[in-house]
Amino acid sequence: MSTNLVTLLPELVLTITGVIVMLAEPLIAPGRSRKPLGWVAIFGTLVAAIMINGQRQFTNIHGAVQGFYGTLQVDTFSVFFHFLIAAIVIVTLLGSLDYFEGPTTHAGEYFALICFGATGMMLMTSSVELLMVFIGLEISSISTYILAGFRKGQATASESSLKYFLLGSFATAFFLYGIALCFGATGSTSIAAIAQGFATTQMPLMAWLALAMVIIGLGFKVSAAPFHVWTPDVYQGAPAPVVGLMSTAPKAAAFAVLLRFLFNAAPMFRDHWITLIQILAVLSMCLGNLGALRQRDVKRMLAYSSIAHAGYILVAYAAFPQEAVAAVCFYTASYAAMNVGAFLVITQLTGFNESARTLDDYTGMALRRPVLSALLGLFLLSQIGIPFTGGFFGKFYVFTAAIHSGYTTLAIIGLANSGIACFYYLRLLAALYTRPVTEPPTEAAPAQAFSPAIGVALAATAIATLMLGIFPNQVLHLAQRATPINMPPAAMVSVPPAP
Questions:
Q1: Coil, helix or strand for 74?
Q2: Lowest model confidence (mean pLDDT) among 48-62, 241-255, 427-441, 485-499
Q3: Contact 47/13 with Cβ under 8 angstroms?
Q4: Does any domain span residue 270?
Q5: CA 310 to CA 257: how far, in whole Å?
Q6: Is the peptide bond before 496 cis (omega within 30 degrees of 0)?
Q7: Distance between terminal CA atoms of the chain?
Q8: DSSP letters of 280-343?
Q9: Where residue 61 falls among pLDDT bands split at 50, 70, 90?
Q10: Is 52:77 a contact under the CB 8 Å cutoff?
Q11: CA 177 to each of CA 125, 213, 229: distance values in angstroms, whole numbers, following the listed order
């Protein structure tokens, strides 16, 4: 089999799936259900997951494989993130099958855009050439810009899409200018060539500026403070299942790119970029958690929470390369499980029109929807970091990696912020199980049971959240093997002085 084909198999399958969905959508009469198109998208994503497993077996035998003139590379690192993105997309699609029933006849476009967006995310994680990363970033971003405003009849949705587009464009400009400066300093946009060029460059100031620009551009994409200003408004106006997707999969791809760039292309400048990363981590954790304390809108609260989680993940970048990569991979996987699950529950509780928005609307929800409330409670406890959940082990691994590398103060700040986060998570949890002052009328119709598809999606996220906290070894082993090749040995990375 051609190595070019091997490096691009899942992306090809997802692209073809999206095209098929787009071509089939106009053939369905207006007013008819678009749910079959959702099943087509799910089937296509499952086939892509099978292709990813084939990539894993191929790399186990032949090692890392490069294609298209060295612009794409399939290794254990890219395979890990490919699996993660495919899992997030499948769960999101399952949770969205009933979401657009009735309110809109354009659900087929929604399913196709998710496939196209996943294509761009996977392309980002396997690219070892910055211009190819940029192409993947644009494919992913354009899809999510449209998805954010998919509830076209609501003003908040239009605001969400427009704000995401405008500020995302600024982020893209920073990233692209960083690529241009990398080329100016090294004469190449290949990560391997940039690493060689940075080591011998006669323009270190340009190299440092290039590093800063790339970090700023990716900082927008992962909603790290102070580049987080778009996050609360976009999360509030976007459809709940879209928020679950865009808060996890694009961030996972951006964190993967940041890992490759910092540890593969710029290890010699670690003393420079590590300071910037620490500042972003501290600002993200503090501003995210303090901002969440002031929120009454549940989606805005979780938006600020996602900013804080981006800060926790950035703490891992302070660690030595092998520990940093494993910690980032594991935390990203555990965060994906609990955050996608939380937004799927919100999708079921609020519906297309999002009838429950504030904490007051969730008061006494456990009396009406006990199963969904229990699942939301599980995901909230995991985000706090309660033992036997994926969130606990993810934070434990991140902070331990930082301490092993000498950044004890940074880990202590992270632990303190985890304590602050307890207040707003437990406030929502308490609202769920608080008896409302006014009892609901007895003649109210009972809540409908959710469909088997959403049941599978919720069960998958709940099981993943628990398994990552109780039996983390298998995923941890995969995360430890996900270190990109050409990582510098620990001896090349200076140990910071004790704080």
A1: strand
A2: 485-499
A3: yes
A4: yes
A5: 14
A6: no
A7: 53
A8: HHHHHHHHHHHHHHT--BHHHHHHHHHHHHHHHHHHHTTS-HHHHHHHHHHHHHHHHHHHHHHH
A9: confident
A10: no
A11: 20, 7, 21
Query: Would you call 415 helix, strand, or coil by DSSP?
Result: helix
Nearest to 256 by CA among 319, 303, 324: 324
d(CA 283, CA 229): 13
Two tokens, residue 8: 């691009």
Does residue 241 contact residue 249 with C-beta atoms inside 8 Å?
no
The one-letter code for the residue type at 81 is: F
499 within a domain of the structure (yes/no) = no
Structure tokens at 153: 């009849």
Q: How many residues does the chain have?
A: 499
**In the chain, what are the helix, strand and coil shares in percent, each to the nearest 5?**
75, 0, 25
**Taking all residues of the chain, what is their mean pLDDT, rounded to a whole number?**
89
Alpha helices in 76-203 (DSSP H): 76-96, 107-126, 130-148, 155-186, 191-200
Whole-angstrom Cα distance, residue 249 to residue 352?
22
List Cβ neighbours of 14 (8 Å cut-off, separation of 6 or more).
Answer: 44, 45, 48, 115, 116, 118, 119, 122
Residue 29: exposure state from Cβ atoms within 10 A (0-12, 13-18, ≥19):
exposed
- Decide if 317 contacts 257 (C-beta within 8 A): no
Separation of alpha carbons 418 and 414, rounded Å: 6
Banded model confidence at residue 107, pLDDT cuts 50, 70, 90: confident
Number of domains making up the chain: 1
pTM over 0.85: yes
Has residue 73 been placed in a domain?
Answer: yes
What residue has token string 């008061």?
A: 363
Q: Does residue 226 have a cis bond before it (omega within 30 degrees)?
A: yes
Buried residues in 378-409 as b, exposed as e (16+ CB within 10 A): bbbbbbbbeeebbbbbbbbbbbebbbebbbee
For the cut 70, the answer to whether the pLDDT of residue 48 exceeds it is: yes
CB-CB neighbours of 367 under 10 Å: 15
- Residues 6 or more apart whose CB falls under 8 angstroms from that of 70 comprise 128, 129, 190, 192
Q: State the number of CA atoms in the 13 A half-sphere of 127 facing the CB.
A: 23
Both tokens of 498, joined, read 């004790």
The 10s digit of each residue's pLDDT in 333-364 is 999 999 999 999 999 998 877 877 889 889 98
Domain of residue 372, residue span: 3-492
Per-residue pLDDT tens over the stretch 110-142: 999 999 999 999 999 999 999 999 999 999 999
| Rounded CA Rg of the chain | 22
Could you tell me if residue 497 is inside a domain? Answer: no
pLDDT digits (tens, 9 = 90+) for 390-448: 999 999 999 999 999 999 999 999 999 999 999 999 999 999 998 776 655 443 334 44
Tokens 């969205």 sit at which residue? 96
**Local structure of residue 446 (DSSP, 8 states):** P
